Amino acid sequence: MTYEWKFNFAVVVSLLSLLVSTLSARLQARSRRRAERIQAHETVCEDVSFLLEYPLHRRRAAAAALEYESDDPDLQAAVRAYLDAHWMEQFWPGSRFVPEAARTEEERRLFIQHVRTEASTFRDRLLEHQIGVTIPERSPVYHLDDAEVRAALNRVLKHIGGHLSQFSQRIRRRWEDAKSKDPADIRHEYELGLRVCPNFHEHNPGDVDDPFYGLLVAVRQEYRKLTQPALEPLKWNLWRWRWKLRHPLVAVRAWRDRGT
């Protein structure tokens, strides 16, 4: 073994060692950076979830407080009792919900049928009230009269402002817009659309640029992206390409529609 060969071998080993050390340091720095970003998002995740779910919880609470109202006191009492009754009692009501004024069998049958119809209509109205959160209502600017909402929104804005480097460019841009805009102005923009039509914003979802709601959605989506398993994007891409190979005509048509 010559001296030159020994020297070259030592140089190669040194270079490989340096390369491994550099890659290890970069991976550790990347992992540490990812952990810091996840921690920064987790700090506001509870407040973000509260603000996004608050409109639905508020509607459900309001729906739970609603009671059936009618000008007919007998019908009102019967429908309320019917709604609170067990399903077996609703299926075989007997004469429990029938007032004394209904004397004949035909009158009782028609009254029970009317009670069932009114109860079903009231249930549908309750369900629509519980889940029918409109686009303006989902924004925190519509619920700033609640002290918890104001406090949670202020905590989110303050934390993101103090840790801007830990958040994506999309979140930083939304935060800057939220800090430069008054929530009252955003609410006024929503109300202008509602004056045109009660469902104006459902038909024109991008008409109002709401940085407060957009900030909350961006934080939630970024947190999910950071915490998803490392192989999840790969699995999703494989499934997508597999579907495209099985349905080439549909995939080409969808690509063409997006291109136009």
In words, what does this structure look like?
The chain has 260 residues and is mostly helical. Among the domains are: 36-56 and 134-228; 73-131. It is 75% helix and 0% strand. The protein is built from 11 helices and no strands. It has helices spanning 3-64, 73-84, 87-91, 105-131, 147-162, 169-180, 183-196, 200-203, 211-227, 232-246, 248-259. The chain is elongated. The protein starts with a helix and ends with a helix.
The gist of it:
The protein is an all-alpha fold and 260 residues long.
**So what's the overall shape?**
elongated
What profile does the largest beta sheet have? none
Which spans of ≥5 residues are poorly predicted at pLDDT below 50?
Answer: none
Distance between the termini: 69 Å
H/E order of the elements? Answer: HHHHHHHHHHH
Structural class, from helix and strand content?
mainly alpha
Q: Report the mean per-residue pLDDT as an integer.
A: 80
Number of strands: 0
Quaternary state of the chains? single chain
Radius of gyration: 31 Å
- Into which percentage range does the β-strand content fall? under 5%
Number of helices: 11
The proportion of residues forming helix, as a percent range, comes to over 70%
